[in-house]
């Protein structure tokens, strides 16, 4: 039986009577990857912030395993949902270990010390993202890809059920884009992420939520959402979507801006 892990129902969020998100509904099944795509200003990041309550919704509801998010306190939410934001907070001289160790906070009482099991969990997470050798290096001295891997390690230590990521491949070269997405897919978590590269979305996402001006244009299996008509109407660019029926791989090739 398919388990709906997260459900967003008619989410709206506005600023000064201007709708940024309007009546957005979608679901994320347990263990699947849902990609949120759309042009700049479509409301992708704002929607993510509604999901983990950084933005207070004007209306609508988010449920986790059929329980309203409103019934959880912040610590309970942090035990279930980990977030890797697009903008990293200032961490000054904190090391990789310090950052990853923060993932334990939802599971600890104030001033509770780490156990041997905690330290093993941190080491295992660092090994998973191939950062064990940089355990005591200052976070701010890492490359962009290494910083992303460090934040993923923190999320692993947090032991969430759902991972939310905002543009995890932003400002990374092709090698690190695929490395980061491969790592998170292998975690087996329910993953919800915004992503601007439609070819990466085609390769790594099970379903896509297409937003335009804060509203849902489409929500369906990736191969159904990525079609020439929807892409042209939403992004105002001509394209060709190639589909390989044997490998089920897709590729979007752009022809140029549409003048319609």
UniProtKB/TrEMBL annotation:
Domain ABC transporter: 6-238
Pfam families according to UniProt: ABC_tran (PF00005)
InterPro entries: AAA+_ATPase, ABC_transporter-like_ATP-bd, P-loop_NTPase
ATP-binding is among the record's keywords: yes
SUPFAM superfamilies (alphabetical): P-loop containing nucleoside triphosphate hydrolases
Keywords in alphabetical order: ATP-binding, Nucleotide-binding
Cross-referenced Gene3D superfamilies: P-loop containing nucleotide triphosphate hydrolases (3.40.50.300)
Signal peptide stretch: none
Record PROSITE patterns: ABC_TRANSPORTER_2
Superkingdom in the source lineage: Bacteria
Protein name: ABC transporter ATP-binding protein
Species for this entry: Thalassotalea castellviae
Organism phylogeny: Bacteria, Pseudomonadati, Pseudomonadota, Gammaproteobacteria, Alteromonadales
């Amino acid at each position: 039986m398919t388990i709906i892990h997260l459900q967003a129902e008619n989410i709206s969020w506005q600023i000064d009577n201007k709708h940024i998100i309007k009546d957005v509904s979608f679901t994320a099944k347990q263990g699947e990857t849902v990609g949120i795509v759309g042009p700049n200003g479509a409301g992708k990041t704002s929607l993510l912030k509604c999901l983990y309550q950084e933005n207070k919704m004007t209306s609508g509801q988010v449920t986790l395993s059929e329980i309203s998010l409103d019934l959880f306190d912040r610590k309970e939410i942090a035990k279930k949902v980990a977030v890797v934001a697009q903008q990293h907070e200032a961490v000054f001289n904190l090391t990789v270990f310090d950052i990853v160790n923060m993932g334990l906070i939802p599971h600890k009482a104030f001033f509770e010390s780490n156990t041997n099991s905690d330290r093993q969990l941190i080491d295992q997470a660092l090994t998973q993202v191939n950062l064990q050798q940089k355990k005591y290096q200052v976070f701010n001295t890492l490359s962009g890809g290494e910083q992303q891997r460090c934040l993923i390690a923190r999320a692993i230590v947090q032991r969430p059920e759902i991972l939310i990521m905002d543009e995890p491949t932003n400002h990374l070269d092709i090698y690190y884009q695929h490395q980061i997405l491969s790592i998170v897919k292998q975690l087996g978590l329910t993953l919800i992420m915004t992503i601007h590269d439609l070819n990466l979305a085609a390769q790594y996402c099970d379903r896509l939520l297409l937003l335009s001006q804060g509203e849902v244009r489409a929500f369906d299996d990736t191969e159904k959402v990525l079609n020439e008509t929807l892409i042209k109407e939403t992004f105002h660019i001509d394209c060709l979507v190639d589909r390989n029926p044997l490998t089920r791989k897709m590729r979007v090739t752009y022809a140029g801006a549409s003048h319609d």
